[in-house]
Specification:
With 132 residues, the chain is of the alpha+beta class. Helices cover 23% and strands 39% of the residues.
């Protein structure tokens, strides 16, 4: 094999291996840390998958219209280390989520900082929390 073809082949493989790292972003890239948001609603779905978990929540506005909000959280293993257990929060569970809005404010999306259940249990992105 000619060295030029080999170099292109190796370069291509290196580039493919770097795609997951390139696709991963910091929370600050997608969310405005100066724009806190708090929503109250009912869990529609919890997605524990890599690279980040998602909490989808149905939120009613003052007129009764339901909007789905999506909150990005930590990795599944990180959420579990921080006190969250799979299947602990099921669809239909009433919650309040505090976090930060997406930089594109037209999106009903945010970064989860803490999730509080109706009984006061708090699950946070940054470790076990106490309800304050």
């Amino acid at each position: 094999m000619k060295s030029g073809v080999f170099a292109v082949l190796v370069g291509g493989l290196v580039a493919l291996g770097a795609l997951p790292a390139w696709a991963h972003h910091s929370f600050a890239a997608a969310y405005d840390m100066q724009q806190p948001v708090t929503v109250h609603g009912v869990i529609a779905n919890v997605l524990l998958r890599n690279p980040h978990s998602w909490f989808l929540i149905d939120v009613k506005d003052a007129s009764g219209k339901v909007d789905e909000w999506a909150f990005e959280a930590g990795t599944p293993s990180g959420m579990i280390r921080n006190g969250y257990k799979p299947n602990i929060i099921k669809a239909g569970t009433e919650v309040t989520i505090k976090g930060f809005r997406a930089k594109d404010a037209s999106q009903k999306r945010g970064m989860l900082r803490e999730l509080v259940t109706a009984d006061g249990q708090v699950y946070g992105l940054f470790g076990p929390q106490e309800n304050k």
